[in-house]
Design a protein that fits this description.
Elements: H1 5-24, H2 31-43, H3 61-73, H4 77-90, H5 97-112, H6 119-131
Helix pairs in contact: 1-3, 1-4, 1-5, 2-3, 2-5, 5-6
Length: about 130
């Protein structure tokens, strides 16, 4: 099945939610976690595919846009993870092996970016690992 621009934009928005869920699961988002998201988007996510948003910019930028929006509107980690999970279950075809692998790599990097992994982050990372098998 061909992934549409709309689906892929939603994928990147869902990834922004997931990455926020990892960052906020210990109660706050540290600047190092936000910096790690920006770094990985620029170094890796922008090169995954050629999908663009409605403004003609790389759809992967939606990761940072959604993450930043969530910083202001403070959704819980569980809410964000559930929204990601629902998208994943509705659109498993949008998740290539490359995207799954990079998603796991990114969530681990976010969790490691400030004071290494704590119990809540380890639990969430385990849920992500099971979901993306």
């Amino acid at each position: 099945m061909r992934d549409t621009d709309k689906t892929m934009n939603q994928l990147y928005k869902s990834l922004g939610k997931l990455f926020y869920a990892v960052a906020i699961c210990d109660g706050s988002v540290h600047i190092k976690e936000w910096d790690k998201v920006e770094e990985i988007v620029k170094e890796k996510w922008l090169y995954v595919d050629d999908f663009a948003d409605r403004y003609g910019t790389d759809a992967a930028n939606q990761i940072e846009i959604v993450f930043d929006w969530l910083l202001e509107y403070e959704k819980t980690s569980e809410e964000c993870f559930q929204e990601f999970k629902e998208f994943y279950e509705e659109h498993p075809h949008a998740f290539s092996e490359e995207i799954k692998s990079l998603t796991k790599e990114t969530t681990n990097a976010i969790a490691n970016s400030f004071s290494k992994k704590n119990k809540s982050e380890l639990m969430l990372l385990a849920k992500i690992e099971l979901l993306l098998k």
